[in-house]
């Protein structure tokens, strides 16, 4: 059974840092395109960052230079290091993996940035 489980969210002051982790079971993240999305109430999920299966990264312009997406191959996790957090970064962050016409979502982890 495939599972993606996010952790690491929480409440942080503006300017602070958080590291989100997505632990994968039942699939090898190395062969998937992997992503972090953010969703705020009433809005669709927005792509924040991508790390694809050939190690190419993409960042939304708003987070470029502040967030870093990376994988831990030994632990089979996808991570998002977030620094210089702003109140606008507040939302539920979801891990997503897709390949071969299959895709998987985690349950999300809440990030709240106070001003």
Description of the structure:
- This protein is an all-beta fold and 115 residues long.
- The protein is 0% helix and 56% strand.
- The chain has no helices and 11 strands.
- The chain has strands at residues 3-7, 10-13, 18-25, 33-39, 46-51, 57-59, 67-72, 77-82, 91-99, 102-105, 109-114.
- The strands form 2 sheets. Strands 2, 4, 5, 6, 9, 10 and 11 form a 7-stranded mixed sheet that branches. The chain has a 4-stranded antiparallel sheet with strand order 1-3-8-7, with no helix packed on it.
- A hairpin with a 6-residue loop joins strand 4 and strand 5 (46-51).
- It is globular and about 40 Å long.
- The N and C termini lie far apart (40 Å).
- 31% of the residues are buried.
- The model has no long low-confidence stretch (mean pLDDT 97).
Short description:
This protein is mostly beta strands and 115 residues long. The radius of gyration is 13 Å and the shape is globular. The model has no long low-confidence stretch (mean pLDDT 97).
Task: List descriptors.
11 strands, four-stranded antiparallel sheet, mainly beta, seven-stranded mixed sheet, globular
Could you give the topology of this structure?
Elements: E1 3-7, E2 10-13, E3 18-25, E4 33-39, E5 46-51, E6 57-59, E7 67-72, E8 77-82, E9 91-99, E10 102-105, E11 109-114
Parallel strand pairs: 2-11
Antiparallel strand pairs: 1-3, 3-8, 4-5, 4-9, 5-6, 7-8, 9-10, 9-11
